[in-house]
Amino acid sequence: MKIPIQRLRRPFLATALALSLILPSGCGFKDIDKRIFVLSIGIDHTDNEKKPYKVTLKLAVPSRSLKESDTKYTYLTKESESFSSAIRLLKTHVDKELDFGHTKVIVFGEEILHHDLADITDFFLRRRDIQTVAWLAIGTPTAESVLKAEPASEMASSHALFNLFDQTGVESSYIISTYLFDFHRKMLETGIDPVLPVLRSSKNKKKIIVNSATLLAKNKAPINLSPQETKLYNLMNNNTQKLDIIVKEEKLLYTVSIDTAKTNFKIITKPKHKPVLKLDVTMKGIIEESNQHMNPKKLDTYSKYASKKVEKQITALLTKFQENKADPLGFGVRYKATHLHTRDTYKEWKKLYSEISFDVNVKASIMSTGIIE
Span 227-373: which CATH code? Predict the structure, then answer.
């Protein structure tokens, strides 16, 4: 039995039409030479009510080789009433498509902190081409001044801000790395507050300094953390890198280099008793510097001095958090997760947090006095 050719053509044409609808067209694809990559974004607040946002983009300029790259970066700046409109207008300033696939740092100016950051980060979370693992930071005095700084150590194939936050370049206990997704979660979650690192550029724009942080407690003014407080926050948050402790006992002054540290805490509530937050810290290290001869037989004594010093510093920082009704370590989240006897556990926690006392126990173990005998 022969089947007419016309009857065979119909299913073939239907299949071809269906495949043409399924397969994506090539109109949205652009070659790499038609794109320019955005490395970081800066957001500043202006005094213009009609155009309150100033957006700065740091772009990587492609080159044939590292030796030929005299101009490594270029910058685009635009003021607008929204981020979306600013970026669309900035597209008209270059002859290539702006590619945000490599954007890994978002810097906020100081003035932005006095506005709702949850609404501001909403834009970056909605865009599918911006990574949620991008780092957030505060630029002082402005985000634009930080982005336009070009350290002498910055190479054409890298970005100085990437090396600061990804822990593959510099390792420091004074540096805090905060991801976009984690910042947004802490802004919405009750019982924990986000902390952002603070970036400062030198006057000659050849150096970027990051050794402090800002605590953004909900419905409170930003709380600035000194370098020492930033280091202790990293210690309590189990994010310590190359921690140092300076101990002064009478005429003895020495510095301990901590190699490993671990922190645990527990919230103790008993009927008819004042609530207590018990925080235990264990650390190990060696003596790195001293103004006197260090006796290896007195390592236990030196360890006790270091333990008391850190206990005093941590207690003072926890008290500062409590007085400002801030909770960057997530004590409230822990309480809500472990106390399910009532529906409104967070309301109960806020009352307890104002009355809680801190029991800090630090066990520092100094393993040696260094290689000096």
Answer: 3.30.300.210
